[in-house]
């Protein structure tokens, strides 16, 4: 006896949210245990694992990799079977389900098992089960499946494996071998456009693109002000406390100082920590600062450090470390990326000196950008004479929603921000 259970996409509280299937962790016919991860769903911010609702066998996949789904939508079906029927049922199901993959679906995919003039021995190898999206991409690229290294569960080939696979170039002998017709075909093809590589948009990248376009072109008039920050005292303080903070589990980075200085600036200009509505400006009392974090080329997430106004420098450093580590390991929870009231983009970590405008993270009213620190010559006056000294400095920018505040308030914010960094440590 078996009962079919729906595998459902998570129900998000934002009704308009949509997800994308990132990858299935099990194949049709696999046995799974209750609460074991079945499929990964990607949002524009985090990756969510959907677990098996019961112990059983994965009987049907309705949504494949890169398919968009809505909250609560059915992703597939899981068949719960009795203990006595599990083994026989699974064997029969594997024979029924694997046949299309191993014979019908693989008919047009080269396994690299034959040579010219030889008889095919395709039955000698039993290929692994593949998702329809992977199969389609392999066929489109005319790739040899036997040459693709699978990095997924139990060696399963994923979309990323196919996209990163580099086909072997033709041997010199095969390149020289050809009739005049073949040479002509090669000459004709040489005038064709250069080879390109298609990289499917992830749900994160598409949502980021939509969010950025909507913020910049349809919501807020962006204005950017720029100051220069002196980091000499900050870097001296950092050098004196780096080991102590690290031993206590809070690596001390420049970003921790920028967050602390941003709190001072927000208190001086409360409108920077607000949200524009048609009826009023909502100015928030708590300060929840989002930190733009690059996920190694995948995209940018903005985990949120909450109630920053109540934290000292050590608490800020420890919170930043937790968020950064969770982001890079793909372990951010949905609550980690929600509720931000202000955002900092420290793009200087990538060597960038200045970028503008940094697009406001709606529905916030401002975003702070910080460039890479560098040693610059500075004129100072001592004893009535000017001389040149080397100082560590960086450019900082504040991009504002011009509906919320004007250039004067943006300058006031940055004046407070750079003043706090210049006069570090903070005065009580």
Model description:
- The protein is an alpha+beta fold and 428 residues long.
- The chain folds into two domains: 168 residues, OB fold (Dihydrolipoamide Acetyltransferase, E2P) (Beta Barrel), CATH 2.40.50.100; 219 residues, Chloramphenicol Acetyltransferase, CATH 3.30.559.10.
- Strands 9, 12, 15, 16, 17, 18 and 19 form a seven-stranded mixed sheet that branches. A four-stranded antiparallel sheet has the order 1-8-6-3.
- The protein contains ten helices and 19 strands.
Break the fold down into its secondary structure elements and pairings.
Blueprint: E1 2-8, E2 19-24, E3 31-32, E4 37-42, E5 47-51, E6 56-61, E7 68-69, E8 74-81, H1 83-104, H2 132-141, H3 159-164, H4 172-176, H5 180-189, H6 203-219, E9 222-230, H7 232-247, H8 254-268, E10 274-276, E11 281-283, E12 289-291, E13 293-294, E14 300-301, E15 304-305, H9 313-328, E16 342-345, E17 366-370, E18 374-382, E19 385-401, H10 407-422
Parallel strand pairs: 12-16, 16-17
Antiparallel strand pairs: 1-8, 2-4, 2-7, 3-6, 4-5, 6-8, 9-19, 10-11, 12-15, 13-14, 17-19, 18-19
Average the pLDDT over all residues and give the rounded result.
Answer: 79
Low-confidence parts, pLDDT < 50 over ≥5 residues? 83-127, 178-192
Number of helices: 10
The biggest sheet amounts to: 7 strands, mixed
CATH homolog superfamily of the largest domain:
Chloramphenicol acetyltransferase-like domain
Q: What is the gyration radius calculated from CA atoms?
A: 28 Å
Helix content percent band: 25-40%
Question: How large a portion of the residues is in β-strands, by DSSP E?
Answer: 15-25%
Distance between the termini: 71 Å
Query: What is the overall shape?
Result: elongated
| CATH class label of the largest domain | Alpha Beta
CATH topology of the largest domain: Chloramphenicol Acetyltransferase
């Amino acid at each position: 006896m078996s009962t079919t259970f729906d595998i459902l996409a998570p129900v998000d509280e934002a009704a308009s949210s949509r997800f994308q299937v990132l990858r299935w962790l099990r194949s049709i016919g696999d046995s799974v245990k209750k609460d074991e991860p079945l499929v990964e769903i990607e949002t524009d911010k985090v990756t969510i694992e959907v677990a098996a609702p019961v112990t059983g066998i994965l009987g049907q996949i309705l949504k494949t990799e890169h398919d968009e789904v809505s909250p609560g939508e059915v992703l597939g079906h899981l068949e719960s079977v009795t203990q006595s029927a599990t083994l026989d049922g699974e064997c029969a199901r594997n024979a029924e389900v694997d046949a299309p993959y191993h014979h019908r679906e693989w008919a047009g995919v080269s396994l690299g098992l034959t040579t010219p003039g030889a008889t095919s021995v395709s039955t000698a190898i039993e290929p692994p089960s593949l998702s329809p999206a992977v199969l389609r991409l392999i066929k489109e690229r005319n790739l040899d499946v036997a040459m693709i290294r699978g990095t997924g569960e139990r060696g399963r080939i994923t979309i990323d494996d196919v996209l990163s696979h580099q086909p072997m170039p033709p041997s010199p002998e095969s390149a020289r071998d050809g009739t005049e017709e073949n040479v002509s075909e090669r000459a004709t093809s040489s005038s064709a456009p250069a080879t390109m590589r298609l990289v499917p948009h992830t749900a994160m990248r598409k949502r980021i693109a939509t969010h950025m376009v909507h913020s910049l072109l349809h919501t807020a008039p962006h204005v950017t002000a720029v100051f220069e920050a002196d980091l000499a005292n900050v870097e001296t303080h950092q050098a004196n406390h780096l080991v102590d903070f690290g031993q206590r589990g809070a690596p001390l980075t420049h970003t921790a100082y920028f967050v602390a200085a941003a709190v001072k600036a927000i208190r001086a200009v409360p409108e920077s920590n607000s949200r524009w509505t048609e009826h009023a400006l909502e100015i928030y009392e708590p300060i929840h600062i989002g930190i733009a974090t690059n996920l190694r080329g995948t995209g940018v997430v903005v985990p949120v450090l909450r109630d920053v106004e109540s934290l000292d420098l050590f608490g800020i450093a420890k919170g930043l470390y937790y968020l950064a580590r969770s982001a890079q390991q793909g372990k951010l929870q949905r609550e980690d990326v929600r509720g931000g009231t202000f955002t900092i983009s420290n793009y200087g970590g990538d060597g960038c000196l200045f970028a503008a405008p940094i697009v406001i993270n709606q529905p916030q009213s401002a975003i702070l950008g910080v460039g890479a620190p560098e040693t610059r010559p500075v004129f100072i006056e001592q004893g009535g004479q000017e001389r040149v000294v080397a100082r560590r400095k960086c450019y900082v920018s504040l991009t504002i929603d011009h509906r919320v505040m004007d250039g004067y308030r943006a300058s006031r914010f940055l004046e407070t921000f750079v003043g706090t960094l210049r006069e570090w440590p903070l005065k009580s």
